[in-house]
Fold:
Amino acid sequence: MRYKITADSTCDLGRDLIERYDIGILPLYVQLGEKTYRDGIDIQPDDIYAHVAAGGGLATTAAVNLADYVRAFTELSDRYDFVIHVNISSDFSCSHQNAKLAAADLPNVYVVDSRNLSTGHGHIVLEAARMAAEGMEPEEIVQQLEALTARVDASFILEQLEYMKKSGRCSAVALLGANLLKLRPCIEVKDGKMGIAKKYRGTFAKCLEAYIADRLAGRDDIELGRIFITHSGVPDEIIALAKSCIAKYQTFDEVCVTRAGCTVSSHCGPGTIGILFIRK
Structure:
């Protein structure tokens, strides 16, 4: 059967993986100043950072709208036997609601809530592509993907809290205390929602090592096919450190490094990095 897997731009898979698996991407919208842009097409995270560094306000993001989904799904429905679209968690955006409405009258278009963001979302997208390539029926793919969402382990550690302060998610007092104590929070996704899992103290490199040890060391409940290192802009040596720490604790078939898109980057700012994998 002819099929197409699509996803919101929040999957953060990067051009190489998108092209390798022929994933169709529908961009969210980014509001920066007076202008509206399409995530990953008209604007990149570094554009947001430059705007904020020059004294501008933070970017805000908006869902893929109903008209965008209707247009894309209608065209793809005519060309393929089935289409599976994977959304960012419905707790983070109304994109999933819009996609469900757009697909309501198209029986060969299936919409899945990833219950995640960034490459936690991306894992679900790539698993959809794998299952479709293996010849599974779309109803079975959807059923398996919905079960899989609870097994995705997605977390990030933040190097700085300045963007959190600007967005009102962190007070000036908390920011000052974090800076003085060199605290680096770990944010994780659970049940489709985001929360603080733990706070680390020390240099960012030291905290990164401790964070990866906490997530991976001594565990036998991890699927070792693929792990993502996803970041919002960090030095090469930090990525190299993350790779070496992962190799110290687990042996994955594939370690994929991707750059977070505008959604994660606009909330966390530069210096955020995470490891995202699937549990057994």
Q: What stands out?
A: The CA atoms of residues 228 and 256 lie 5 Å apart.
